[in-house]
Amino acid sequence: ALQDEVPPLFIWSRMWHNSAKSSDERMKPLTDVMESISAATVRLPRVALRRMLRLVRILSRLSHSPEYRQQVYAQVPAMARFDPGHDAVMMCYDFHLVDDWPRLIEVNTNAGGGLLAYLAQHPGAPAQAAALTPKLKSRLLQTFATEIAGFSGGAQKKPAAIVILDETPEQQHLYVEMQAFADLFEDWGVPTTIADPEQLEAHAEGVRCGDRKIDLIYNRHCDFYLASDVMAGLREAYLNGTICLTPNPHMYGLLADKRRMLLWSDVALRSSWGLSAKDQALLDRVLPRITLLADQDPEQVWAARKELVFKPVDSYGSKGVLLGEKTTRKRFRQLPPETTLIQDFVPPNMTEVPGHEAMKTDFRLFAYRQQALGITARLYRGQVTNMRTAGGGFAKVTLGP
Question: Cα angle at 148 between 143 and 154, to 5 degrees?
């Protein structure tokens, strides 16, 4: 039942449709990506996976709760208070494991790594033409179909044209993955372009890329609130309801902005959300204690630093994250109190990797709304998660007792 509920993440990929490039140029991105795949296998207790799934479902339900939204809307920019009528594809939830209990590290929109998760789970699969079952292919495409249906009020069953959006996408480590998604959409019968925001003609009336009108953008850009000048036209189109943007500022504000963990950890606030006692108990066990530096005595925080992690509220990809035990007094004094979160340090698991030292491990669960899409492990060394450690990267997960 769990395998049906959480399949290995899948990507349909021909990947190399640009015949203008030389063979070496076409193979280099794949070589770079393969270096981020580990040969190790990581065991995950089934009960831990069930608890992860329960958390995803609780948070997904909360994101649609009027009481919860009211509290979030009081804390987010106006951009994040606009409800576009749909959710967000390819979200992920990152965990460490303490015995059989997962501990949530963070929630992400614009999550990448699906292709690597698939290749790690199926090391014998050909990278250029992954053999997917119709059921697996349908499950991923259905998330995008559900998004465009929500955006169009049920008038559309699939997008007419898609842009996969990121900053200078060809320079991104996961550009190969964007190509894989483009192939998936093209096989679905939907013309697809991978583009930088500057390549779009965007304004309140809609979005065009070249001579094509776009009705859905698969957004992998990390300007989560569309605040930069380059996103101004897209911002207007999104607010005017002329583009289906997924993921989007609304869902980022509701679930992925790191400040939401402050809400989830507040027992008094949670009492107004209609959660069951069982759900409350799960949150107590899965959520690490988290506070804002501005609300604490700096000297007490400094004294307890070895048990803490410091995170900028608006960072992504582990940027700016500091382990307390590695933080100098000078660096600590430089942390902006109003935008620095203090989180209990939850040590990562360790995985034995043949031919290498044991590596730190976290688990990434990909999901759409309350539906799990796949689970993977990420192996690394160093202070924060990285995919460049020799022998590390995305790894296969097996479910155990």
Answer: 110
Q: Are strands 393-400 and 371-380 parallel, antiparallel or unpaired?
A: antiparallel
Render pLDDT for 242-290 as a digit per residue (tens, 0 to 9): 999 999 999 999 999 999 999 999 998 898 899 999 999 999 999 999 9
Strands of the sheet with 206-209, listed across from one edge: 200-203, 206-209, 212-214
Q: Give the tokens for residue 189.
A: 């019968």
Contact between residue 249 and residue 224 where contact means Cβ atoms under 8 Å apart: yes
Scanning the structure block, which residue is given the tokens 């790191």? 258
Nearest residue to 233 via CA among 145, 157, 163: 163
pLDDT band at 126 (very low <50, low <70, confident <90, very high): very low
pTM given for the model: 0.89
**Per-residue pLDDT, 355:** 86
Assigned token pair, 128: 């250029």
- Cα–Cα distance between 252 and 76 in angstroms, integer? 10
Please name every residue paired with 37 in a beta bridge, in sequence order, or none if there are none: 394
Identify the H or E element spanning 195. Answer: strand 192-195
322 backbone dihedrals φ, ψ, rounded to 5°: -125, 130
Q: Which of 236, 207, 234 is nearest to 223 (CA)?
A: 234
Q: How confident is the model at residue 19 (pLDDT cuts 50, 70, 90)?
A: very low
* pLDDT tens figures, 140-166: 899 999 999 999 999 999 999 999 999
Give the Cα separation of 215 and 254 in Å (integer): 24
User: Are 162 and 217 a contacting pair, CB within 8 Å?
Assistant: yes
pLDDT at 217 over 70: yes
Q: Which residues on adjacent β-strands are paired with residue 399? A: 44
Q: What sign for the dihedral angle of Cα 219, 220, 226, 229?
A: negative
End-to-end Cα, the chain, rounded Å: 14
At 325 the three-state DSSP class reads helix
Residue 107 in 3-state DSSP? strand
